[in-house]
Specification:
It holds the Pfam family HD_5. InterPro entries: HD/PDEase_dom, HD_GYP_dom, MASE9. Keywords: Membrane, Transmembrane, Transmembrane helix. This is HD domain-containing protein. It contains 17 helices and four strands. The chain has about 425 residues and is mostly helical. It folds into two domains: about 220 residues, no CATH class; about 170 residues, Hypothetical protein af1432. The chain has a two-stranded antiparallel sheet with strand order 1-2. It has a two-stranded antiparallel sheet with strand order 3-4. Helix 2 runs antiparallel to helix 3 and helix 14 crosses helix 15. It is elongated, with a radius of gyration of 26 Å. The mean pLDDT is about 85.
C-alpha cells in the first residue's frame, strides 16, 4: 500500500478495535454457554459465506446472528462470533473462491475491526436501556434496546465505510455515509426481527428452534441472490451490446465505458442515491445505441460530413430512444438517451429543448459524453490536452453545458489532481 491516508486510517481503526476488544474483555467470563457460542460462531461463518455480492458491496443475513448474539451472550462474545465469522467466510467472486488464506491481511483486519467497533458502540446503546430503563414493560425496553442497537451499528459501520472510501478515492464522506446507510438500512431492519426471534427460539427450543428459523432466512437469501443475478446479467448484457456497437469504430471503442465512469463520479459527488447512480450508468452505456442504424462509412468518414450525413448522425438520439422506449423498468433512461445532445441554452439537437425542460441528469450525461469525445482521438482530430478541455468547459458553461455540472466536474478533477 502506498496510500498514506489509507495507512493512517487503517492503523487508527486497528487501534480502536483493539481498545474495544480489550475493554469488553474485562467484563466477560467463560461459562456453560461455550458450546452455544461455538454453535453461533459456525452459524456466523455460514451466513457470511452465503452473502450476496452486488458491485462492491456484499449483503448477508448475518445481522440476524449479530442481534441474537448480543441478546444471548453480551458484547465480548458477540464481537468474537461476528468478527471471526467475517474473517473465516468463504464466498465466490469472479469464478474463484475468496477466503482468509488468499485475502490480504490488511483487508481481513479491516473487516474484523469494522465489525468489532460497530458492535462495541452499538452494544453500549443496547445496554444503556438496561441500566436506565424508564419502563416496567419488558417489550418496550427490548424494542428500544434492539432499535438503538440497529441504528448505532448501522451509523458506525456506515461511517467507517465512508472514511474508507474517502481514503481510497477522496469521495465526499457525508455522501458516502448517507448512501451506505440507506443501502444497508433495509437489510438490517429486515434481519433485526429475525435476530430477536432467533434468540427467543434458542432459549426455548435450543438448536432445533434455530434450525427451524434459519430455513426462511436462507430462502430469503436465495430469493435475493436470484434478483441480484438477474440484475447483474441485465447490466452485463447492456455493456456487451454497446461493446459490439463500438467495435465498429476504432476511435470510439470504450467510449460508453469512459462516459459511465465520468457520469458515476459526478453523480456520487452530487450525493445521488445508488439507484439513481445505477440508472445514469446504464444510460451511459446505452446513450449511443441509436448509432446501430448508421452506416460504418459515415461513422468512420475522415473528411467533412455532408449535410445529409450530418443529419443522419444527429438522428441517433431519437433512434436510440425508439429502440429502448418500450423496454420495461428502464425508468428515465430513454429520456436521457433521447436528449443527451441537447444544450443548456436550447440550441442542441434533436429537439432544441432548454435546461428547464430536461432536468439536470441529462446534462451530466451530456457533459460526460463531450469530455470523453474531447479526451480521445477521433477520425477527424487528435485528443485534446486537459487544459484545453477545461477551457472549453468553462467557456461554454451556461450555453452548451449546465454550469452546476461543469463546476461539479471541475471540482472532481481538482480533487484527483
Amino acid at each position: 500500500m502506498k496510500n498514506k491516508k489509507l495507512i493512517v486510517f487503517l492503523s487508527v481503526l486497528y487501534i480502536i478495535a483493539a481498545f474495544c476488544l480489550y475493554n469488553s474483555y474485562k467484563y466477560f467470563k467463560i461459562d456453560e454457554q461455550l458450546i452455544s457460542i461455538v454453535f453461533f460462531l459456525i452459524l456466523s461463518i455460514i451466513t457470511e459465506s452465503l452473502s450476496v455480492g452486488f458491485k462492491k458491496i456484499r449483503i448477508s443475513s448475518g445481522f440476524a446472528i449479530t442481534v441474537a448474539s448480543i441478546i444471548l451472550f453480551g458484547t465480548f462474545w458477540t464481537m468474537i462470533i461476528i468478527s471471526l465469522g467475517m474473517a473465516f467466510r468463504i464466498y465466490r467472486k469472479n469464478d474463484r473462491y475468496i477466503h482468509v488464506f488468499n485475502t490480504p491481511i490488511y483487508i481481513t483486519l479491516f473487516n474484523v475491526s469494522n465489525m468489532a467497533i460497530s458492535i462495541y458502540f452499538s452494544s453500549m446503546a443496547y445496554n444503556s436501556f438496561i441500566i436506565h430503563s424508564f419502563s416496567s414493560n419488558i417489550f418496550i425496553v427490548q424494542f428500544l434496546q434492539i432499535s438503538s442497537f440497529v441504528i448505532v451499528f448501522l451509523a458506525v459501520n456506515s461511517l467507517i465505510m465512508a472514511i474508507l472510501m474517502f481514503s481510497l478515492s477522496n469521495n465526499n464522506i457525508l455522501h458516502e455515509f448517507l448512501n451506505t446507510f440507506k443501502f444497508g438500512l433495509l437489510n438490517i431492519i429486515a434481519m433485526a426481527p429475525f435476530g430477536y426471534l432467533l434468540a427467543y427460539l434458542y432459549r426455548k427450543y435450543n438448536i432445533i428452534g434455530i434450525l427451524i428459523l434459519m430455513i426462511p432466512v436462507l430462502l430469503a437469501r436465495y430469493t435475493y441472490s436470484l434478483y441480484i443475478e438477474t440484475k447483474t446479467k441485465y447490466i452485463e448484457t447492456v455493456i456487451a451490446l454497446m461493446h459490439a456497437i463500438e467495435a465498429r469504430d476504432e476511435y470510439t471503442e470504450g467510449h460508453s465505458r469512459n462516459v459511465a465512469k465520468i457520469v458515476e463520479d459526478i453523480a456520487r459527488e452530487l450525493g445521488y442515491s445508488e439507484s439513481r447512480v445505477e440508472q445514469l450508468i446504464i444510460a451511459s452505456y446505452l446513450h449511443d445505441v441509436g448509432k446501430i442504424g448508421i452506416d460504418d462509412s459515415i461513422l468512420n468518414k475522415p473528411g467533412k460530413l455532408t449535410a445529409e450525413e450530418y443529419n443522419l448522425i444527429k438522428s441517433h438520439p431519437e433512434v436510440g430512444y425508439n429502440i429502448i422506449k418500450d423496454i420495461k423498468d428502464l425508468g428515465d433512461i430513454p429520456h436521457l438517451v433521447r436528449y443527451h445532445h441537447e444544450r443548456y441554452d436550447g440550441k442542441g439537437y434533436p429537439w432544441g429543448k432548454k435546461a428547464q425542460e430536461l432536468g439536470k441528469d441529462v446534462f451530466i450525461l451530456q457533459l460526460a459524453d463531450a469530455v470523453d469525445a474531447m479526451s480521445t482521438d477521433r477520425v477527424y482530430r487528435k485528443a485534446l490536452p486537459w487544459e484545453d478541455i477545461k477551457d472549453e468547459l468553462i467557456k461554454n458553461s451556461g450555453t452548451q453545458f449546465h454550469p452546476d455540472i461543469v463546476n461539479t466536474f471541475l471540482k472532481i478533477k481538482s480533487k484527483k489532481s
